[in-house]
Each structure stands twice: as C-alpha cells, then as structure tokens.
Design a protein that fits this description.
This protein has no helices and eleven strands. It is mostly beta strands and 122 residues long. Strands 2, 4, 5, 6, 9, 10 and 11 form a seven-stranded mixed β-sheet that branches. A four-stranded antiparallel β-sheet has the order 1-3-8-7, with no helix packed on it.
C-alpha cells in the first residue's frame, strides 16, 4: 500500500521559519510530480509549490522568494522550507505526489498526505 507521511509544521511567529517533510512509502515503481498544497479555513485547497522528477519547480505567487521546495528521489521525499512566514500562510498543508505503483507502472495515481497544521501568529 502506497502512502505519504508528513512531518513538521506547528506554531511560529510572523517572520519565522518552518520546514515540512513528506516521505512516500510502499510498493513504488517511480514518482512523477510532487508538491505541497494548503487549505485555509473557508478557502479552497491551493497549490503552494510543485517539483518534477527532474527538479523543475513552480511556486504560487504568494510564496515566491520565501518558500523552497526540494526532493530526494532516492529517499522518496519532498520538503518545503518556509521562511519569512506571514499570518496568511496559516493553513493545513498537504503533501501530494503522482506515483506509479509496482502493480501498474504504466500509469500514475495521485496520493495525498494526511495534512499538517501550520499556524503563523502575528
């Protein structure tokens, strides 16, 4: 069974930093795109940052220059370093990955982590 497990998050003051990490496990053939999404109360889930298997990245305009996404293909992990945090960054953050399982490597399936809370106080 394939799963994504997140770690990190918590409470930080505005201007501070936090790091999130997500590890994929299970019978995995390969992983395509990985990313981080977030959902604030009363709002839709939105893409924060994404990274391809080749290392190409994209960011939401609201986090450019403050957040950095990275991945380790060998360890099957994706990290999000968040600097200069603002109260509006408060949300539940979800890891996301397009994974090709061993039982069907011809196609990918999208998996989500359980979510981790990030709270930025003013």
């Amino acid at each position: 069974q394939v799963q994504l497990v997140e770690s990190g998050g918590g409470l930080v003051q505005a201007g501070g930093s936090l790091g999130l990490s997500c590890a994929a496990s299970g019978r995995i053939f390969s992983i395509d795109d990985m990313g981080w999404y977030r959902q604030a109360p009363g709002k839709q889930r939105e893409l924060v940052a994404g990274i391809t298997s080749g290392g190409n990245t994209n960011y939401a305009d609201s986090v450019k220059g403050r957040f950095t996404i990275s991945r380790d293909n060998a360890k099957k992990t994706v990290d999000l370093q968040m600097n200069s945090l603002k109260p509006e960054d408060t949300a539940v953050y979800y890891c996301n990955a397009d994974i090709r399982p061993v039982f069907y490597p011809a196609s990918y399936f999208t998996y989500w982590g359980q979510g981790t809370q990030v709270t930025v106080s003013s």
